[in-house]
Write a structure and sequence with these properties.
The protein is an alpha+beta fold. The chain has four helices and five strands, in the order E-H-H-H-E-E-H-E-E. Strands 2-3-1-4-5 form a five-stranded antiparallel beta sheet, covered by helices on one side. Helix 2 packs antiparallel against helix 4.
C-alpha cells in the first residue's frame, strides 16, 4: 500500500505523530564522470570558480537541510548531522558519499539522497566551463538504520 495516498487516492503527508523517536541514519552514494583533465583540475583546486569540492560539500549539506522544501511530501526533520565525502574512483570518476543522522520519528534517507544530488550538481556547475559532457549517475541509497526496519543496498 502506498502510504502517501489517502483513501481517495489523493496525495497526503504521512502522519508520523504516533511513531517512536529513534536514532536514524542513512548513507547515499552517487558519482560524476568527467574528462581526466577536469577531474585533475577539480581535485587540485585549479578551477576558475574556486574550490569545487568545498563548494559542493557546503551545497550538499544545505541541500540536505532543505529537502522538505524540495520534495513535496517530506517531513521537516531535525537533522543532527550531514557529512559529505569525495573519493576519486578512477581517472575520470568522482564518488560522492553522504551520511546523515537524525533523532526523530521518520527517516533521513531523502536528506542523504538530496545531499548527494546537490553536491553532484554543484560539481557540474563548478566544472561546466571546461567540461559540459560530465555525467551524474548511480545516485542510490546505500543503507538506512532506525525505525521499524534497516536496509542495506545489495551490490
Amino acid at each position: 500500500m502506498l502510504t502517501h495516498l489517502n483513501e481517495n487516492g489523493e496525495a497526503n503527508m504521512v502522519d508520523v505523530g504516533e511513531k517512536s523517536v529513534t536514532v536514524r541514519t542513512a548513507k547515499a552514494y552517487g558519482r560524476i564522470r568527467m574528462q581526466p583533465d577536469t577531474l585533475r583540475a577539480l581535485l587540485s583546486s585549479q578551477l576558475k570558480k574556486g574550490d569545487g569540492l568545498a563548494a559542493a560539500r557546503i551545497a550538499g549539506i544545505l541541500g540536505g537541510k532543505r529537502t522538505s522544501e524540495l520534495i513535496p511530501l517530506c517531513h521537516n526533520i531535525p537533522i543532527d548531522r550531514i557529512d559529505i565525502r569525495f573519493q576519486q574512483e578512477d581517472a575520470q570518476t568522482l564518488g560522492i558519499l553522504a551520511e546523515a543522522k537524525c533523532t526523530y520519528k521518520t527517516g533521513i534517507e531523502m536528506e542523504a539522497l538530496t545531499a548527494v544530488s546537490i553536491a553532484a550538481l554543484t560539481i557540474y556547475d563548478m566544472c561546466k566551463a571546461i567540461d559540459r559532457a560530465m555525467v551524474i549517475e548511480e545516485i542510490k541509497l546505500l543503507e538506512k538504520t532506525g525505525g521499524k526496519s534497516d536496509y542495506r543496498h545489495e551490490g
